[in-house]
Q: What sequence folds into this?
C-alpha cells in the first residue's frame, strides 16, 4: 500500500484529507479487506510515527512492532530539522536556508511551504529539489547511500510537500502524545532500531521512547545514520524480522 499522496497513490503529493487518522483508517480498511486478524507493524522514520500511532489506536491488531529511525513529531524534533542540524551539517543547512528568498528565511517551515505551493510549478520543483538535497546530504553516515526516486522530480516534490505538510500542520496534541500513549502497547513485542549518527532524527528520540517502553528492545547501530539502506541497519532489521517470522 502506498500512503495517500505517495508512490502510486493519486493525486501524487495530495494533502487534502491526509492526516494520521486518515492513514490509520486506510490501514484498517486494508486489513479488513485482506482478512488479516493481526499483523506485524514495521516502519522507519515517518513510518515509525505512523506505526506507533496505528498501534496505539488498534493494539489488538498488532503482533509486533519494528521501528527504525524514530520520529515522534514533537516540537523539538521539528525545530531540530529546520535549525538544529546546522550544528553538525552547517554547509548543507546553509544551502537549505539560502535557497529561499531573503524575506522567507525567518521561518524555514513556512517559507518552504509557500514555495512548495507556489502557482509556478517550476518554483515548486526547485524548492522540492533544495529540500531533497538537504535530506540526501544528511541522510546517511555513508556517502554511497542515496534514497530511491531521487531523480524523479515529481516524486521529490510529492515527498517534500507531504513532509512539510505533516511537520507544519498535522502535529499531535499534546506534542508528545506518542510517548504518553505507550502504555497502550507495552505488552506488544517491539524493537527500536536507530543509527548512532542519525542527523535527521537524533538518537535521543529512540532513547526517549525506550525510557517509557523499557520492554522494547533498543538497538543503537554504530557507524550508521538515518537511512534504512545502510548495511548495518539493513542487516539488523532483517535479523529482527527473521526472528518475528520464526515465532509467527
A:
Amino acid at each position: 500500500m502506498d500512503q495517500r499522496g505517495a508512490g502510486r497513490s493519486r493525486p501524487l503529493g495530495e494533502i487534502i484529507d491526509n492526516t494520521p487518522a486518515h492513514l490509520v483508517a486506510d490501514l484498517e480498511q486494508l486489513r479488513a479487506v485482506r482478512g488479516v486478524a493481526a499483523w506485524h507493524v514495521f516502519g522507519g522514520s515517518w513510518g515509525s510515527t505512523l506505526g506507533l500511532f496505528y498501534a496505539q489506536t488498534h493494539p489488538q491488531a498488532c503482533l509486533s512492532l519494528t521501528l527504525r529511525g524514530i520520529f515522534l513529531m514533537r516540537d523539538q524534533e521539528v525545530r531540530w530539522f529546520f535549525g538544529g542540524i546546522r550544528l553538525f551539517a552547517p554547509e548543507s543547512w546553509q544551502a537549505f536556508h539560502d535557497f529561499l528568498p531573503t524575506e522567507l528565511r525567518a521561518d524555514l517551515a513556512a517559507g518552504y511551504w509557500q514555495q512548495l505551493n507556489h502557482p509556478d510549478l517550476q518554483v515548486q520543483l526547485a524548492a522540492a529539489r533544495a529540500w531533497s538535497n538537504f535530506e540526501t546530504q544528511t541522510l546517511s553516515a555513508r556517502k554511497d547511500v542515496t534514497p530511491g526516486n531521487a531523480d524523479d522530480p515529481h516524486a521529490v516534490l510529492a515527498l517534500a510537500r507531504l513532509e512539510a505538510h505533516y511537520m507544519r500542520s498535522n502535529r499531535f496534541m499534546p506534542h508528545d502524545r506518542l510517548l504518553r500513549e505507550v502504555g497502550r502497547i507495552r505488552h506488544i513485542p517491539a524493537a527500536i532500531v536507530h543509527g548512532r549518527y542519525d542527523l535527521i532524527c537524533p538518537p535521543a528520540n529512540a532513547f526517549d521512547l525506550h525510557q517509557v517502553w523499557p520492554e522494547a528492545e533498543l538497538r543503537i547501530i554504530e557507524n550508521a545514520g538515518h537511512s534504512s539502506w545502510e548495511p548495518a541497519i539493513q542487516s539488523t532489521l532483517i535479523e529482527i524480522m527473521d526472528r518475528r517470522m520464526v515465532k509467527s
Remarks:
- Residues 38-73+172-247 form a domain with the Rossmann fold fold (CATH 3.40.50.1820).
- The chain has two domains: 38-73+172-247, 77-169.
- The mean pLDDT is 95.
- The longest strand covers residues 62-68.
